[in-house]
Amino acid sequence: MLSAMQRFAPLPDGAEAAEGSVTHPAGFLAAGVAAGIKRSGRRDVGLLVSETPAVSAAFFTQNRAAAAPILVTRDSCDCAALQVVVVNSGNANACTGAQGHADALRMRELVAGLLSLPEEQVAVSSTGVIGAPLPMDVIEPGMERAAAKLDHGGGERFAAAIRTTDRTEKLGAADVELPSGAVRLGFAAKGAGMISPNMATTLCFVTTDAGLDAATWRRLLGDAVEASFNRITVDGQESTNDMVLGLANGASGVRLGEEDLGLFSAALRAGLLAMALGVVSDGEGATTIVRLSVEQALDEAEAERVGRAIADSPLVKTAVYGKDANWGRIVQSAGMSLSPDGDRELVCDVVFGGVPVLVQGDPVALSQADEEHIAASMADAELDIGVVLHRGDASSLVYFSDLTHEYVRINAGTRT
Amino acid sequence: MLSAMQRFAPLPDGAEAAEGSVTHPAGFLAAGVAAGIKRSGRRDVGLLVSETPAVSAAFFTQNRAAAAPILVTRDSCDCAALQVVVVNSGNANACTGAQGHADALRMRELVAGLLSLPEEQVAVSSTGVIGAPLPMDVIEPGMERAAAKLDHGGGERFAAAIRTTDRTEKLGAADVELPSGAVRLGFAAKGAGMISPNMATTLCFVTTDAGLDAATWRRLLGDAVEASFNRITVDGQESTNDMVLGLANGASGVRLGEEDLGLFSAALRAGLLAMALGVVSDGEGATTIVRLSVEQALDEAEAERVGRAIADSPLVKTAVYGKDANWGRIVQSAGMSLSPDGDRELVCDVVFGGVPVLVQGDPVALSQADEEHIAASMADAELDIGVVLHRGDASSLVYFSDLTHEYVRINAGTRT
Question: Which of A106, A109, A122, A124 is nearest to A67 (CA)?
């Protein structure tokens, strides 16, 4: 996974991709079992445990219709000292009212009891269909079996248990040679798959055996989330269940110093970006990932808004699917999302795969070689598009997927 | 057209649908010719003229990448005293730089010369492909032929000439019996068709032989635009070329008094809403029009934002296409677009076709009869969805179309 994302998410020098997932770092146990939530019979309950107390950091959806597991973890766990994550897939436990809240609390209570840990150190996470009650009759024995199967090699089974109808696995690991010694990182993510078609949810779990304090871990992980999961969009729809959660247990014996943070942070960021891009490229029928750069915006807010407007425009997304370098749709999206600053008309540049097609508002007469270069770029699974607004010096970067027949097929299917 | 839209856009008592279009009111001439812009050989240059000086009102796209004809009409015409509209389809004259601006001016100059009117009284409008220069070599003779063919019965040919790949015609007329006498209204609109797939543009032209002053006409038409074209969305993409333009020439001899304005305004609004809904129902592959009501929002801005978020959510739009009453996706869209007011979680109601499916955040156990009623509503071409936010007393209404395979097919096609 990590090595498959070389172009947009290269690991820094000093870090190397490794086999495995969240149990690649020392001192982590995981399991993934088929409890029977998914009709397919696939793994649907996962458990991830640090053998020793860990520092942790968690980032949650901003959606105000947040699911019960988000509320329980966010509001009544010690999110800087989590040691365990229990996840189920196949049911999001979202829009489930008071019963859903009680079920999320029960999941936490049961796992805490099985592992003899305080409830505040157990995070709860769910993904899947919305609005249906959790089938606690199968989840409870499932959690018991998962606890019994916890294993140092269980990371990939855990990663499988958090996925829904993802077409591809999203996991990876890295070895990082820091000045202070060797540490490891492990990743598992899911999305933007569907189960009984419903909204996509992104979950991502990160482990490391590096030693660092909770505040530093939160800062590094937050920066990496900002540069990865917060920069992607499949359909502009923020889920009720999104969660990124990281555990750092220090089991490597390497305590990070200032001199280690640059490389560690770069490796963490590359890994998280690889997971996020994995979600985009598996996003509901997607065939292409676009890296969209917006430059010379009036301010940060405008750069962000223009980037999101272009990335979420169904006209731009279908044009990418159609391999059509349709810069008119990009200018139109930008034109409707500028910051208010009088009636000044937009005069911009657009660049496809490195070739300018519009400069200062005037279409470029393309050579045959240019046309061929653009066509080759559009045919690639990773496409660069640049927009220069000539209004200021703020910029933004957004990664997005195209809108395809498969997206409609997946999402227009009836729930069963 | 007007009578086909009875449910969502009924004409008021005292108004009756009539045959015809923008030349149904007295004193209007129109023409539509095939100049050769469209490869199909269909009509692509239209001319609409009031025989006598008229009062006028025009409303333009807010897009800051507005096309040349928008800039010319908006910035250098007398928009309260227009007497002529010249329109071409097949080419939007958008993103065409200085040449495009010169071409729009030339269209205006030529028509003003042909009709011996001041240039300031001639509006210019274009729709079609973006970024290609206008083929003036065919447009100029086309405009001359249109001027030679102006006719009191030319409204339907004009309406044909403004369409691109619309599947259905969008025109209509009404007779209105006011206290002060009989007046007539005529309508022609286009959208959301594509030509050599590119962005949709909405144009709408309204005529009346009622007599009223420019300020009143602007206020009535503005209110009607607000309640119709400003309440629809197909894909959330504001075009570079949108224009609604109305001409009122007083040729009926009936000068409107205060006692006439209520009925006249209601008929105008119903006609404009019928045109707008015609655009939605013909919107790029659409199979269903949804009338979405958002109630009890914190404030107007929130009501509007939540309505737009739901209407533009590809997950909601594909669910409507799939005839799936997927209220979870509606709650999710609402939850991501609330006004900031602390961390209060959303607790809302959702109603499909009159049947509550979520009440105060709790899913409703539906009876067999409820399920059947919902299924029948979803199968209708006009569907009502209601969302009650329980946060305040502001509300909004938005009309939107579904997202279908046909939408992707149309928009992923390569420009030729």
Answer: A124
